[in-house]
Specification:
With 179 residues, the protein is mostly helical. The protein has two domains: 86 residues, Death Domain, Fas (Orthogonal Bundle), CATH 1.10.533; 82 residues, Death Domain, Fas, CATH 1.10.533.10. It is built from twelve helices and no strands.
Length: 179
Amino acid sequence: VDRFLSLQLSISSGLSAAEVKTMKFLCRDKITKRKLESVESGLELFSILMEQQVIAPDQLGFLKGLLQHIKRRDLLLLVEQFEQAELHAPDDQPDEHEKPFDVIRANVGRDWKKLMRELGLPEVKLDKVETAYRYDLEEMVFQALREWQKWKGKDAKVADLIKALQGCNLKLVADWIED
């Protein structure tokens, strides 16, 4: 079962008709009036927000804002727990990047964000990692690399890591990975 859809179902089942109405009102600038008129449940609203690419598993800010506005801290907590679970979810792919990740983790340090931007990782993912591992720099680097790997999927190549390291003037680390 898709965890994000399950989250939406849990939130929707906890909403009253008045809360759905308030959320619809708050979505007027995101969804056309015609579409909003047909919405009768949280699920229908979330479905449209997903179609409009306003919410996604890695893009939950708007949803969290809606839940804060209707003062549903309990439902907001579900979203935050989902975010944490996503951040710590085991990766299903075999990890050919393990050695390069360890080299990068041990040698990149505070330049990790620069490297991740060079790899094209979205800012929202960087912020998520930074928040979760605020006091452990090496773990921040490692988890950011895993986020990049999950984000790129089969397109995550060691060659891209090397090129990004060189682009950040971390040529020595890039050389270590090539060896």
